């Protein structure tokens, strides 16, 4: 049987009601459901809060009994309070979140008009838009045409990877970069293109999703 240590699990409300499936128990006393506590769904509009101040909202929420796996659909929003300060917000048609046994985020997967925004403790904002996005092990991967920006800097291209440990951002191909004419930068008014892709090293402590 699976055990889980205490973590910042969610408290949720669903105006449309609750459906819950109790786990089935075999002859050996073990349950064969996804969770020892069962699994179910809340029908929306659904809102919820985590003990660390993070929050969620969606039209529909599916979860297992110990809240290690959450799936938000229909205008899903997940807002996370970051350990080092700042806030990150994910918006999409479909968001799946998986927590480890300590309640820490181990997987974030989002599909459908995905937008990821992050505000650092210095109020600097970065954002990312993509059809599909996955974060696992400190690496953000987004497929298809992906737009990313911070301050006056903005890129677009295909298939982005962002390693949060090394702060390296990579596009696989078809990259364009534009800097507004009024940007406080020596690159102001310039634009670049690179069919072969791009690698970019982000500064330390940048608020990048």
Overview of this protein structure:
It is a single chain. The chain is mainly β and 209 residues long. It has strands at 10-14, 17-21, 39-50, 55-64, 69-81, 87-99, 105-119, 125-136, 139-150, 153-163, 168-178, 191-194, 198-201. Strands 1, 2, 3, 4, 5, 6, 7, 8, 9, 10, 11, 12 and 13 form a 13-stranded antiparallel sheet that branches. Strand 4 (55-64) and strand 5 form a beta hairpin. The chain starts with 9 loop residues before the first strand and ends in an 8-residue tail after the last strand. The model is unreliable at 1-7, 18-22 and 31-35 (pLDDT under 50).
Give keywords.
mainly beta; disordered N terminus; about 60% strand; elongated; about 210 residues; 13-stranded antiparallel beta sheet
Count of DSSP strands: 13
Count of individual helical segments: 0
Distance between the termini: 35 Å
Radius of gyration: 20 Å
Concise account of the structure shown:
With 209 residues, this protein is an all-beta fold. It is built from no helices and 13 strands. The two termini are 35 Å apart.
């Amino acid at each position: 049987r699976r055990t889980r240590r205490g973590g910042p699990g969610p408290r949720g409300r669903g105006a449309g009601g609750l459906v819950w499936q109790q786990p089935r128990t075999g002859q050996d006393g073990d349950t064969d459901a996804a969770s020892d506590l069962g699994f179910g769904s809340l029908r929306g509009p659904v809102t919820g809060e985590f003990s660390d101040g993070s929050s969620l909202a969606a039209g529909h929420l599916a979860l297992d009994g110990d809240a290690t796996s959450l799936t938000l659909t229909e205008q899903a929003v997940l807002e996370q309070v970051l350990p080092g300060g700042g806030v990150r917000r994910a918006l999409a048609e479909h968001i799946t979140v998986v927590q480890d046994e300590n309640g820490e985020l181990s997987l974030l997967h989002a599909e459908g008009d995905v937008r990821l925004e992050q505000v650092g403790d210095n109020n600097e904002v970065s954002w990312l838009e993509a059809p599909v996005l996955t974060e696992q092990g400190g690496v953000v991967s987004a497929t298809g045409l992906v737009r990313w920006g911070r301050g006056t800097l903005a890129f677009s291209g295909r298939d982005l990877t962002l390693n949060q440990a090394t702060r390296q951002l990579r596009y696989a191909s078809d990259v364009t970069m534009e800097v507004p004419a009024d940007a406080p930068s020596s690159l102001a008014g310039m634009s670049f293109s690179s069919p072969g892709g791009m690698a970019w090293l982000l500064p330390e402590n940048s608020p990048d999703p």
